[in-house]
Amino acid sequence: MIAQSLRFPAPDRSRRPRADDLVAVLSCTVALGLAACGGGGGAVTADRIIRNGQIVTVDEDFRIAEALAYRFTPAGSEILAVGSDADVMAFQGPETEVTDLEGRVVIPGLVDSHLHFSLLGIEAEFEADLRRAMSVFDVVQGVAGLLEKRTPTAGSWLVGRGWDEYKYERPFTRWDLDAVTPDNPVQLNRVYRGLAVNTAVFELMGIRDNDPSTWPAWWLEDPEGFTLDDKIFREKRTITVNGRPREVEIPTGMFLGNAVRMVTVRPPAPAFEDQVQAVRYGTEEMTRLGVTGIVDPSGGGGVMRAYQEAYRRGWLKARMLQVFEGMWNTQTPTQIAAHFDAIPFNDLGDRWLRWRGTKWQIDGGAGTRSSWVTEPFLDWEKIEGQPNYGYHWAENDFRLAQLRQVVDRGWDVHIHSTGDLGMKQTVDLYAILMDSIKAVNPNANLRWSVIHAYLPMEPETNMLAKMAEYGIIAAVNPSFIWHQGRSFSQNLGAERMARLQPFRSYLRAGVKMAVGSDYGTSPYSPWIGLYAMLTRKDLWGTVHNAEETIGIEDALRAMTINNAYYTHAEEWNGSLEPGKVADMVVLDLQDIYELERDPERIWEVENTILLTLVDGRPSYQREGFRF
Ligand SMILES: [Zn+2]
Predict the structure, then answer these.
(1) At 125, phi and psi to the nearest 5?
(2) Which terminus of the chain faces fewer neighbouring Cβ atoms within 10 Å, N or C?
(3) What distance in angstroms lies between residue 519's CA and the mean position of ligand 1's atoms?
(4) Cα of 377 to ligand 1 centre, how many Å?
(5) Domain boundaries, the chain
(6) How far is CA 360 from CA 59, 316, 331, 394, 446, in A?
(7) Prediction pTM value
(8) At the topology level of CATH, where does 1-108+575-627 sit?
(9) 204-236 pLDDT tens trace
C-alpha cells in the first residue's frame, strides 16, 4: 500500500473543484417517466458504477467527478449519473456491478477525426512501421524486423510505410535493403507521395542492372513532363556490362511524386477477408490506445462493405464514421451531380457505423513542398530553380460549381487544404455556399471543415476571423509537428513554421478545432497529437513556438467533444454526462493535470491504458486490470 501511494502521489486538486463539491448530475433526460430527478435512486438502477476515481467529464465546466453510473439500453448504453460517490451509489441495485478505480483518471473515449483506417489493421499485422525511423540503419532494421516476424517465403512481398528521407543522414537505397532482403520484393511507402523499392522489385519488372537492353527509358534520364516535386533518385555505381566495368548513374529505388508511376509491379491488394480481419485488428489496436471513435476520410463502397461485414461479425471494436471520398476532385459538376443522384442518402447507419459527408482536396503538403502558398517554399533557388508556390487542383469558379452539387444534396464538405492560399480558397467558397444555404434555411446545421488547416494566419490571407464567423472547423493534425517538424520547418522556414497549426490562436479566435492523427501519413496514436498540442516539440527536440501550445483541458476537448460535434454526435457522445453513451477510458494516472505539468508522462500513459469501454463494454482491457 505504501508502494502504491509512492507510485501514485496525491493529485494536486488545489486548482480544480473537488469531486465532492459537485452535485450529482442525475439523468433527467432519462425518459421512462422518472419522477424524482434530484433524489437519485429508486426508479432506475445502474448496470455498472465506477467509483473512487477522477472522472474527467469534459463537460462545459470541465468538472472532475468521483463516480459514474450507467446502464445498458437497447440502443447501446446510457450514462445515468456523474458526481460524488455518495450520490452516484444511490443508483446501485442488487444487480449493479461496482468497480473501485482507486483514484485513477477516467476520460471520455477519444475520437480521431481523421484516420485513413482501411489498411491500419493490415499494417499493424503485416507491415513494417517506419515512422519512427531516424536513420538509414533504422529503416533497414525495420525491414529486417518484419522479415523476422513474417518469415515470408521467397518471392512474397514485404511492405513498409512511413519513411521520410529528411530524417536520415542520406536517402536510403535499394542496396541498403538488398543486404537484408535479397529474395523478397520490398515496397516501402513514404509518409506522403513517395515509394522506395529494392532490387528484387526491378527484377520482377524485368530490369537487370548489368544488362542495358532491359533498362526502361527512364532509367538514366527523367521522362518528359516531370514537375518540381517528381523525382527519381540516382546514384553513381559501377556495373559490369559484357564483362567490362562501367560507371553510370542508376536509380536507387527511391521515387517521389508522380515518379512512383515508374514502378509498375506492386504487392497484391488485400483480399476481402483480409480487409474484414483488418477492421478487427485495427479497431483493437485503436482501443488499446483509448480511441473509441474513428472518422475515416477515405470511405467508399469497397471499404464500407468490409466494415459492415466486420460489424456483422461483432469485430468492430470502435465506432466508425466514413466520410465519402471519390474521384470527384477533378470531375465536372455534371459528373458529380450524376454521381450523387445515384446515392439517395447523405447520412446512413447507426451509432457504430455511419456514413456521412464528402472529402475533397485542394493542394499537397508542406513536407513535399506542394502546399498552395503565398510565399514560395524556402530554398527554391537550390531545389526547384524557380519560385515554388505548390499546386492546386481547381480554380475558384470550377470548385464552387463542383461543391454546389454536393451541398445542394445535403452533404457536408471537408477539404484538404494545407497552404494559406489553399485554405483561403476553401474558406472563401464555404462562406459563399453557407450564405446561400442560410438565406433559404437559417437553421442549417453546417459542420464543414478545413482538413489539416496549417496556415490560417499568413499576413496576406489571415482567415481566423472568417473561420470563426462561419463556424468553419479546423480539422488539425498536431502529430505532424512532432514527426515532420524538421522537414516542414526546412521547407517553410522557422518563422512560418511558428504559425503552422496555431492551436492557441485558433482557440482565441473562437475557431473550433477537431483533432485527428491523419494516420496513413502520420502514426495513429492519439497521444502523439496530445503531446504536440501541449508542447509543439518535434522528434528532434525543437519546439516550434511555445506560444501556440494549449493546455490539457482544451487539448482534451479537441480530442473528444469537438470531434463528436464534428461528426454530429455531440448530443450522445464526446463527454461523460447523463444521457450520453458510456464510452470512456481508464488511465493508469491519478491526476490528469500531471500530463500538462510533465508532458513526457504521456508516453507512459499511452502504453499503460487499463480499460477502454465502448457502449459500456470493454473493447480493450489490460491484463491484470480488474473490471
Ligand atoms: Zn488524410
Answers:
(1) -95, -35
(2) N
(3) 7
(4) 22
(5) 1-108+575-627, 121-262, 272-573
(6) 32, 27, 11, 11, 16
(7) 0.83
(8) Urease, subunit C; domain 1 (2.30.40)
(9) 999 999 999 999 999 999 999 888 779 999 999
